[in-house]
């Protein structure tokens, strides 16, 4: 039971720390693609 609780906490911590940078990276990549598409026209 304690091991399962630790696993859930670990997953939650990874979700909290890993999710925000993922969103930032996704938005910056999307913006860069947009700029590249604008420059190509």
SSE order and pairing:
Blueprint: H1 2-40
In quaternary terms, these chains amount to single chain
Terminal Cα separation, in Å?
59 Å
Largest sheet: none
Helicity range of the residues? over 70%
Kindly state the mean pLDDT as a whole number?
78
How would you portray this structure in words?
With 41 residues, the protein is mostly helical. The protein has one helix spanning 2-40. The protein has one domain (1-41). It contains 1 helix and no strands. The model has no long low-confidence stretch (mean pLDDT 78).
Q: Key features?
A:
single chain; 41 residues; mainly alpha; 1 helix; rod-shaped
Compact summary:
This protein is mainly alpha-helical. The protein has one helix at residues 2-40.
